[in-house]
Automatic annotation (TrEMBL):
Domain Peptidase M48 residue range list: 78-265
Region annotation (Disordered) ranges: 492-511
Listed cofactors: Zn(2+)
GO biological process: proteolysis involved in protein catabolic process
Gene3D superfamilies: Metalloproteases ('zincins'), catalytic domain, Tetratricopeptide repeat domain
GO cellular component annotations of the record: membrane
Species of the source: Salinisphaera orenii MK-B5
Pfam families reported in the protein's UniProt record: Peptidase_M48, TPR_19
Basic and acidic residues biased stretches: 492-501
Keywords, in A-Z order: Hydrolase, Metal-binding, Metalloprotease, Protease, Zinc
Isomerase listed as a keyword: no
Name of the featured protein: Peptidase M48 domain-containing protein
CDD domains to which the protein is assigned, alphabetical: M48C_bepA_like
Organism phylogeny: Bacteria, Pseudomonadati, Pseudomonadota, Gammaproteobacteria, Salinisphaerales
GO terms for MF: metal ion binding; metalloendopeptidase activity
């Protein structure tokens, strides 16, 4: 599947096929306490898309999203959404280790599930929810799309459309303009172009995901009524907006029947001791700031919301993040210090304060803060990455390198750790190691073409010792094989050649 497929795929074809493929959110609800005669998953879908091919397709799309900057790459926010997602997955038939949750850099209220357990939540959806249970309700619906293998089943129902065509369609949607909502728009448009039989089939998947999702919500000690309350809020917004409906209602209309079913199924569970994380309110504001385009608008938003003088720790946190980005570090520190003192168990406050000290050039103070944070939160990848970053900024690349090399699990799971290790090695003059780590960074993100080109350039031009040369050649062979496996030999070769071209000559570049 190559760039030529993207060019040949007409908008009509993309919309039609995309509607047959993707399992995008409806403001879902979930399952119930009684048995709803859910189908057995497996054949005949396996004949068209095996679990291995589903994972391959999901990884391809995520790689494209990362390459186009559509995913918010923030370790703390990522930790949070994956904690919520994994809490839900533990109460399903899925394996938590097979799921990955991402925050999409879009203000639209939407979310989606890709084959293989890759789930995207738009920043706009997170900021639109009122509590963690509403967020969990959307996520549990998307998780059900994955565990029930709806894309494979829809392919099977669509006259045997092959998995390669499925991949071409989803990747064409990603390639269609670089808009963070390109996939969502393609899928939303595609549903309306389907025949009635396929539309009914897709609708049955949504109800199935609702039934399973509400069951998962209750089992995970979230409020099973949260999804029906979210439905109601979306309907109120629809009346308010008139013809300009929220994006989620354009792609997945919410009917009174569906909302009534959500309420009915939630009632099956009775009173539940709901457990929600205090992190939710802070991560909601973090997503708002990270997805914000105009800092001045964000600053006014928080100033207006905080004007009544009532205590609002989450708003103070969000405002401090904006102040940091505006370079008003002293004001940010004044907001964060009392929050961090009063809530030492809240990682977000303490990391934000350490980050503020770092931005203000108080690197020794930031490092002391991060030493204490790592002791209190030993499993936090965000804390570890911030610590390594501070060491590099303090001009201690050797200490940063030694620290990162000792964090083997972090290096295996966080591509950012590989990039920081490359920076540290480069500052020490360890060019062979710097090339090796930067290639690992690209490889972990599925960006095989830049990894291959970088290694080729290093082997041709860099002054390498025998060990580094041998290691880089072995790495190059390994990444070439991974590229062939992820795409195909021909597609890999085309991508490598395309990546090697000057940016100004690539298709779609400004001239």
């Amino acid at each position: 599947m190559s760039e030529r497929l993207f060019v040949r795929a007409t908008p009509t074809l993309v919309r039609w096929l995309a509607g047959c493929l993707a399992c995008f959110i409806v403001m879902a609800t979930a399952g119930a306490a009684r048995d709803y005669q859910l189908p057995t998953i497996g054949q005949p879908a396996d004949a068209y898309m095996s679990p291995a091919k589903e994972d391959k397709l999901g990884r391809q799309v995520v790689s494209e999203l990362l390459g186009r900057g559509m995913i918010i790459e923030d370790a703390l926010l990522s930790e949070y959404v994956n904690q919520v997602g994994n809490r839900l997955v533990r109460h399903t038939s899925g394996n938590a280790g097979n799921f990955r949750f991402y925050v999409i850099d879009s203000a639209q209220v939407n979310a989606f599930a890709l084959p293989g357990g890759y789930v995207g939540i738009n920043a706009g959806l997170l900021t639109e929810t009122d509590n963690e249970s509403e967020l969990a309700g959307v996520m549990s619906h998307e998780i059900a799309h994955v565990t029930q293998r709806h894309i494979a089943r829809q392919i099977e129902a669509t006259s045997g459309m092959g998995w390669a065509t499925a991949a071409a369609v989803l990747l064409a949607a990603v390639a269609g303009g670089g808009d963070p909502d390109a996939i969502s728009a393609a899928v939303a448009a595609g549903v309306s172009n389907l025949g009635q039989q396929q539309t009914n089939y897709t609708r049955s998947h949504e109800y199935e995901a609702d039934r399973l999702g509400i069951r998962t919500l209750a089992a995970a000690d979230y409020d099973p009524d949260a999804m029906s309350s979210f439905f109601a809020k979306m309907q109120r917004r629809a009346r308010l907006y008139g013809t300009q409906l929220p994006q989620i209602l354009l792609s997945h209309p919410v009917s009174t029947t569906r909302m009534a079913e959500a309420e009915s199924r939630a009632a099956d569970y009775g009173a539940i001791d709901v457990r929600e994380s205090p992190q939710y309110a802070l991560m909601k504001e973090r997503a708002r700031v990270l997805a914000g385009r105009q800092l001045s608008d964000l600053a006014r938003y928080y100033e207006n919301r905080r004007a009544d003088g009532r205590p609002a720790p989450a708003l103070d946190y969000g405002y401090a993040l904006v102040l940091n980005r505006l370079g008003r570090n002293q004001e940010a520190a004044d907001l964060l210090r009392p929050l961090a003192r009063a809530h030492p168990d809240m990682l977000a406050y303490r990391l934000a304060l350490a980050h503020t000290y770092s931005r203000a050039g108080q690197l020794a103070t930031a490092r002391r803060q991060l030493d204490a944070i790592r002791a209190d939160f030993p499993d936090s990848a965000a804390a570890k990455l911030d610590y390594a970053r501070t060491l590099i900024e303090a001009g201690e690349p050797g200490a940063a390198r030694d620290y990162l090399l000792g964090e083997t699990q972090l290096l295996a799971s966080a591509s950012e750790a590989q990039e920081m290790l490359a920076r540290a090695a480069s500052q020490q003059g360890r060019l062979g190691e710097a090339y090796y780590r930067q290639a690992r960074f690209h490889e972990m993100r599925g960006a095989y073409a830049p990894a291959i080109n970088q290694l080729r350039a290093a082997l041709q031009t860099a002054d390498l010792n025998a060990f580094d040369e041998s290691r880089l050649r072995a790495q190059l062979d390994q990444i070439v094989r991974a590229c062939h496996d992820a795409w195909s030999e021909r597609e890999c070769r085309e991508r490598v050649n395309e990546d090697a071209r000057p940016a100004s000559t690539r298709p779609g570049s400004a001239r």
